[in-house]
Amino acid sequence: MHYLSTRGDATPRKFCDILLEGLAPDGGLYLPASYPQISDARLQELRTAYHQQGYAELAFQILSLYIDDIPAADLRALCAKTYTAEVFGTGEIVPLRHLEDGLWLEALSNGPTLAFKDMAMQLLGNLFEYELARRGEELNILGATSGDTGSAAEYAMRGKKGIRVFMTSPHGRMSPFQQAQMFSLQDENIHNIAIEGVFDDCQDIVKAVSNDLAFKRKYKIGTVNSINWARLLAQVVYYFAGYIQATESNAQKVSFTVPSGNFGNVCAGHVARMMGLPIAQLVVATNENDVLDEFFRTGVYRVRGSADTHETSSPSMDISKASNFERFIFDLLGRDGARTQALFGTALQTTGRFDLSQDPCFADVAAKYGFASGKSTHADRLATIRSTWQQHGVTIDTHTADGVKVAREHRGDGSVPMIVLETALPIKFAATIEEALGHAPERPPKFAGIEDLPKRVQVMPADAEQVKAYIARHCA
Ligand SMILES: *Cc1c(COP(=O)(O)O)cnc(C)c1O
């Protein structure tokens, strides 16, 4: 399997060549040269593998279609080490729960940080450690977080050989639970840097440090952002696991509704569908930051400025542009790298928008690729959290609530199961749950009292030079 860039660079690269990379050199995103096709017989084998050998084996079988530069025995061991009941809470790893007529919830948030990002990040930690050891290299991961991504990265990389994490976050602006999750880690290779500023200041610092190429090279600075292909690939597996749990025969179809921000999660669903998994619809659910819903309704993709990016009660979906969206558009345009470059490299950079409403390909979005979309607001979230609690005794988090709200509008006559991906547990967003229900969400026992644990964090002004000096001091 080779990988190419969405902007036309077709230099053949293997999985491990792009594992530690962000963007392709031409500014595009990596995709496999083609999507391996799953025949009916093969899907039956995957079904048996999941039921008899479990999620880790399913993951191995799917990943091995895309990774041929790690020996099979090693890849299987990496999957087995990652997807354990100990780390993810249950033997099914992603258990499916029936919610109501035609609607199911697939639990993706029982990993160490209680958000779906663990599903991919935990594997990434093991893949990074393996590949760095094989090359005899080290990596210093520098990131900016307002919550979920940073903690998922830290819990994936803690204690890993050859890896240090330097995670910046806006001082005092994350929820007490999120701060406790990150700052209570005592591992020596994890460095929390609380910046006196807002999230944008943290991102600016990461950019400034990464743009200092000499520093970047000397200190082997890397990232783990959502455009990483390995993260996306790891997510493909739970679409298969959801399908297998919801059906008994491969003649059946299912649909998925996906609470979306950067389009990473639902893009993995698109990949699964391109491989031939019988998915009817992929429904993209957004919050008030509706860049994606707007595109799927109108054909116009219009990125927002920071003044038009709303701070909502489903904060992990508060995005102004969807960093993985280019992958889908590349497929939609018949994998035309020059046109993708014209849209993402030129039109978006100059006008902040592009318009495919008059292009024949726009009809394919729904008809050929199965996409639909919807949007949810703060009032919708509260109402959905309340109704789901009252009707089913189930507490859902705010992001999942955006999904359930939109899924209820798209479930049709109920003949095709609609699976909503549960992307976080409610305890992470306790204030909004209290607003909706009048009581706090349940806290998993292992998180009892984490706010009282000793904290390991360095507070710093919003100054890239001081962050660089800190990194240099801790890389000796
Ligand atoms: C990251 C995140 C999302 C959005 O996922 P994308 O891959 O960015 O579309 C949704 N919900 C939660 C809880 C998240 O952490």
Explain the overall architecture:
With 476 residues, the chain is α/β, with parallel strands linked by helices. The protein has a domain at 96-113 and 229-437: Rossmann fold (3-Layer(aba) Sandwich), CATH 3.40.50. Helices cover 45% and strands 15% of the residues. The protein has 20 helices and 15 strands. It has helices spanning 15-19, 40-53, 55-63, 72-82, 85-88, 117-135, 148-157, 176-183, 199-211, 213-218, 229-246, 264-274, 291-298, 325-332, 337-351, 361-367, 378-392, 398-410, 430-437, 464-473; strands at 3-5, 30-32, 96-100, 103-107, 139-144, 163-170, 190-196, 221-222, 254-259, 279-286, 300-302, 353-355, 371-375, 418-422, 458-461. The strands form 4 sheets. Strands 3-4-14-9-10-13 form a 6-stranded mixed sheet, sandwiched between helices. Strands 8-5-6-7-15 form a 5-stranded parallel sheet, sandwiched between helices. Strands 1-2 form a two-stranded antiparallel ribbon. β9, α12 and β10 (279-286) form a beta-alpha-beta unit. The two termini are 38 Å apart. The model has no long low-confidence stretch (mean pLDDT 95). The structure holds pyridoxal-5'-phosphate. Residues 115, 117, 148, 226, 259-265, 316-317, 399, 423-424 line the site of pyridoxal-5'-phosphate.
